[in-house]
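Interim report, section 4.2 (structural modelling).
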Amino acid sequence: MSSETAHAAARPEEPTESALATARRQLARAAGELDIDPNVVERLRHPAKVHEVTVPIERDDGTVEVFSGYRAQHDSVRGPYKGGLRFHPGVTRDESVGLAMWMTWKCAVMDLPFGGAKGGVVVDPKSLSDAEMERLTRRFTEEVRAAIGPNQDIPAPDMGTDAQTMAWIMDAYSMQEGETIPGVVTGKPPVVGGSYGRETAPGRSVAIVTREACDYYDRSLAETTVGVQGFGSVGASAARLLDEWGATVVAVSDVNGAVYDPGGLDPAAIPAHDEEPEAVTGVDGEALSNEELLELDVDVLVPAAVGNVITEENANDVRADIVVEGANGPTTFGADAVLEERGVPVIPDILANAGGVTVSYFEWLQDINRRSWSLDRVNEELDAEMRTAWNAVREEVDARGVTWRDAAYVVALSRLAEAHEARGLWP
Ligand code: NAD
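Predicted structure of the assembly:
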């Protein structure tokens, strides 16, 4: 399974309230800050389209099983729909719509020419053989073929799907369209048009945003201690880069617990989740629980494992000066209010981990232009895009005195509202 997937017993990304309720609440909060047409806000409360399909496949034993699938397309005012495709038993229509709305905000805050989408198939991928996974992927692709495409809607990996799944989608789509169309999906293997640097991009953006946040709050990275919860694709990449840039990573964790060394760990020497799963607790250092890691007296805390780990119950015990959200939704709504009251800045997920969708955009550009970029170019352009987005959000923080989360949503909504107003309502 790729590092782009997040497996856990619980739904890692599901906030305590539904994804749809969260997305609508954030929309209402940002709208309250802005003088925008309420008719535009009303349009953004609803998805443009939700495709619901049934996906019959032949199991290896010859029986036929029928699965349900969805593709929610929220808003395309700024460009084609973009968002992940997950294979998970908990996929629902409403969850797909809510997560599609999050993608709209994320693409807009990064100023990418995309709107938001999300989808999936209601299935436990562990219950399928590789051949069954391939048949399910190809048939799902055929069922949604008319709705996707490089100029319409571009899926990407998510929970339960990976680079191989994207390669199958690209192949199924291309075979039916009669030409090779790599730009229909991102997160592919580089050999069929995937981008270098895609896997490490979300962690890299977390590190870049941490660097900018330290600069904003007048701390040098050399004097900054960092605790990282989750040593997977996002957490390990972020920890390694921050260490490389001079910060001291004092604690990291996986699902089994944390390791702490006040003198600093060597993140490059600790195996990440996809290199050797759950190896963190074997590392030399003081053993802590995941809960204790969240309460360490560090300068920066990066929750990069699962959602809903900073809650109303433990937010008062968080001693970090800055929280940078690596995971999706690690801070609950209640915890957000506690941290705001305590003056602890929380750099939100839609900005901090947006390196993933940004390098997906780079992959789409490379596919369309039939020209691949070097890893150095990807990383340089990602740095530039992250700094631009950071500065746009920072300006709103400075001008309005709002939280970083509210500022990010204000930036996103202003761009969406302006685009809707410019295009108007058809017909
Ligand atoms: P991953 O599967 O590569 O790694 C997850 C890590 O968290 C592992 O070390 C695992 O042991 C640990 N973990 C799992 N459950 C835990 C728990 N309950 N407490 C503490 N640690 C736990 O996952 P990832 O791809 O790094 O994703 C992590 C988070 O970042 C998820 O919320 C994901 O949605 C989000 N995210 C991922 C990407 C991406 O492209 N990989 C992009 C944006 C956001």
